[in-house]
C-alpha cells in the first residue's frame, strides 16, 4: 500500500531588517523605560523573586538568612 504525504509550504525566514545600531538603540530604549531588567540590581531583584517563588527547597536558605539563624540560636 502506497501512502502520499503532502506538506504545507513553510515561509522562509528573512534576515532581520534591523541594523545593529537600530537594534542597539531599541534595546537601550527598553532598558531606559524599565521594560527590560539589566545590571547588578536587576540580577538581585530577579534572584529575590526566584527565591521567593521556589524557596529554600531549590537553592537553600537565602545568603543573609544563615547568619541570622545562628544569631537567634546563640541568643536563645
Descriptive terms for the model:
76 residues; mainly alpha; 57% helix; 0% strand
Query: Which secondary-structure class do the elements indicate?
Result: mainly alpha
Number of strands: 0
Helix content: 55-70%
Could you list the spans in which at least 5 consecutive residues all have pLDDT below 50? none
How many whole angstroms does the radius of gyration measure?
A: 25 Å
* Distance, first to last CA: 82 Å
Secondary structure tally, helices: 4
The chain-level mean pLDDT equals: 75
Percent in strands: under 5%
Could you describe the largest sheet, including whether it forms a barrel?
none
What are the secondary-structure elements, in order, as H or E?
HHHH
Please give a structural write-up:
- This protein has a domain at 21-59.
- The protein has 76 residues and is an all-alpha fold.
- The N and C termini lie far apart (82 Å).
- It is elongated and about 75 Å long.
- The protein has helices at 20-32, 40-54, 56-59, 65-75.
Topology of this protein?
Blueprint: H1 20-32, H2 40-54, H3 56-59, H4 65-75
Quick overview:
With 76 residues, the chain is mostly helical. The chain has helices at residues 20-32, 40-54, 56-59, 65-75.
Amino acid at each position: 500500500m502506497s501512502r502520499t504525504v503532502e506538506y504545507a509550504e513553510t515561509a522562509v525566514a528573512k534576515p532581520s531588517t534591523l541594523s545593529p545600531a537600530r537594534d542597539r538603540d531599541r534595546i537601550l530604549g527598553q532598558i531606559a523605560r524599565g521594560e527590560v531588567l539589566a545590571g547588578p540590581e536587576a540580577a538581585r531583584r530577579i534572584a529575590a523573586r526566584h527565591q521567593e517563588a521556589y524557596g529554600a527547597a531549590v537553592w537553600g536558605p537565602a545568603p543573609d538568612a544563615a547568619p541570622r539563624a545562628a544569631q537567634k540560636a546563640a541568643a536563645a
